[in-house]
Structure formats: structure tokens, C-alpha cells
Amino acid sequence: MIEAAMIWNEPNNKSHWDPEIDPEWSLFAQMAILAADAIAARNPELTKVLGGISPIDPFFISRMKNYGVLDHLDAVALHGFPLDWNLWQIHEWPEKINEIRAVTDLPIWVSEVGVSTFGAEEVQLWGLQRTAELLKGRIERCQWYSLYDLPRSWEATTRHREAEGSSYYRHYYMGILREDGTPKPALDEFAKHTPDLGLVQWFHFEDPRLDEAAAWMKRLGVKSVRTGLSWADRFRPNALDWFDRQMQALEDFDVTVTFCFTPEHRGIAAHHTSAPLVPEEFATFCEEMVDRYAPSREGGTRCEVSRPVAEA
Fold first, then answer.
1. How far is the C-alpha of 223 from the C-alpha of 229, rounded, in Å?
2. pTM value?
3. Fold classification of 1-292 (topology level)
4. What is the pLDDT of residues 187-202, one digit of tens each?
5. What span, in angstroms and rounded, lies between the C-alpha atoms of 230 and 223?
6. What is the 3 state secondary structure string of the chain?
7. From residue 211, how far is each of 144, 204, 268 by CA, in Å?
8. Which of 20, 40, 108, 114 has the smallest set of CB atoms within 10 Å of its CB?
């Protein structure tokens, strides 16, 4: 069911990794290496991807390279939202990609790119058209964020909150479908670019939109889908039942699963952005998920890797 495993989501963004706990990202590097080796031990054919970085920062990729993390991975991923959050313009996409190509030979994915309809739905339509012009054929994989708007009764997974003005609220308007499931103008345009463009849809625990989302993605001609399996959710009652349902609903797609979110009781701080107390536990979670949803045809070997991280 899984063709690629992504290690964390936006590790250089404080909304997803706490830099006060791990200012040099050495703890992240250690955890990422352990996770990558655990994944490879269970299924050597599975593509291992460094979680999409945001902002697009070649110095962060160089840091991961110096720590030895990239030696254990098969691709690196970028996230870009120049019409909403980034301090650069949409036409700079080729330049941003070239900045990363200058520091690594690994394939480059854009695993999240999108445009909100916070200001106007027509902005998203134009932004999708321009994004497709700039990215199709230039990178190994491109996945649009996202299918659905975030329901306004839910909380966005970010630390911005209202203190950042409209920045927080833009999270609620990233879909090509509105919260009620009705299409926005960009939906028909998106369908013109599949399967070259994949789709990102994060599903909350026991998300009621799951089956409808899978049906929409098939209707749109989507082949590549990116979603997440939360380490924190693994500790909820009936977690595996939900994971099984999610993966079964997506079994007809090429799925990239992002492994992320520290359980509060297993973090140095009680927050999903915290480095874990025991990084091997995250690797064990990744190993369990690969065993369950992407087992090797030839079988793997139990991974018990614990290696020091070099200085960056």
C-alpha cells in the first residue's frame, strides 16, 4: 500500500519541530537516521524521503548532509507556498529548486505546494495554473495541497495561531473542495494536470471524509497521494483499526506516508513538535507501520541500529 516513507513533516519549521529543544537539529538527525535504517531493514525497496522542508533552505539540507542523514535516504522534499506564506514570488520556483540541487544529488520532490482561497478563489485557480507551468517536468514528484478545506471547527496543526494575523486562517482555505465538499473553480484545472500532479490530504483520527476523499481522487485521475500516520495517534484506543481503514481506502494509489508527531508523553517536552525522549521509539513506530502496510516481498531483518551522529 505504501511506495514511499517520509520521515517527519517540515522539520525546519517550528510548527513541527521545536528548535528550542534541538537548536542544532542533532537530535532530529539521530532520529531520522534510526528511522531510515529501520524502514530499510523491513523493506529495502521502499523509497525513504526527508520530510518536506519549509522554508526551502539549502543550509538545512547541507546540515543534514553533514550529519550523514542524506546517506540513509533516497530523496529530499520541499514545501512551498509563495502566494500565502513564503517571502518569495511564485516565479522563483526554478531558482529555489536549483538552490537545493546545488547541495545534494538526491532526487527532489515538492511534496506540498498550494494556494489558498482566503482572498479569492480566482487566486487559487491562477496559482495552480502557474505552479503547473513552473514545476511539471522539473522535479521528480509534485503533490498539490490539498483536496479539502480544513473544517473551521478543527484546529490547524501550526504554532502561528491568531498572533500571525491572516497567516493562521489561510490554513483553512487550501482545498480545491470547500469544507462542505462542493468544488472550487480550481478543481477542474487540477484534473487537467493529473496524474503528473499528485495530491496531499492529511486525515485526522477517524476522519469522516476518508471514503469520499478516495472517491474524489479517483474521479480526478490522481495516482500519487501523500498522507500521514501519526506516531502520537498510535497511542489512541483502536489506533490500528483506524490506520487499517485509512490505508485500505488508499490502496489503489501510490501512497507516500509521512511518519511524524511525537506523543506528548514520549517527548522531551509534552508537545507533538518535541524531540523524543528515546529516538529509537520513533524508529520502532516506523518499522511497525512498514511491516503492516509495506512489507518486503523477500522479508526484512529486525533493525537495532544505534549510531552516533557526526558534528555538522
1. 19
2. 0.93
3. TIM Barrel (3.20.20)
4. 999 999 999 999 999 9
5. 23
6. CEEEEEECCCCCCCCCCCCCCCCCCHHHHHHHHHHHHHHHHHCCCCEEEEEEECCCCHHHHHHHHHCCHHHHCCEEEEEECCCCCCCCCHHHHHHHHHHHHCCCCCCEEEEEECCCCCCCHHHHHHHHHHHHHHHCCCCCEEEEECCECCCCCCCCCCCCHHHHCHHHHHHHHCCCECCCCCECCHHHHHHCCCCCEEEECCCCCCCCCHHHHHHHHHHCCCCEEEEEEECCHHHCCCHHHHHHHHHHHCCCCEEEEEEECCCHHHECCCCCCCCECCHHHHHHHHHHHHHHHCCCCCCCCCCCCCCCCCCC
7. 19, 13, 36
8. 20
Q: Would you give the distance in Å from CA 54 to the centre of its chain?
A: 11
Q: Is the pLDDT of residue 186 over 50?
A: yes
Residue 228: phi and psi, rounded to 5, are -135, 150
C-alpha cell at 200: 496531499
Question: What one-letter code names the amino acid at 121?
Answer: E
pLDDT digit string (tens) for 81-128? Answer: 999 999 999 999 999 999 999 999 999 999 999 999 999 999 999 999
The owner of cell 520556483 is 93
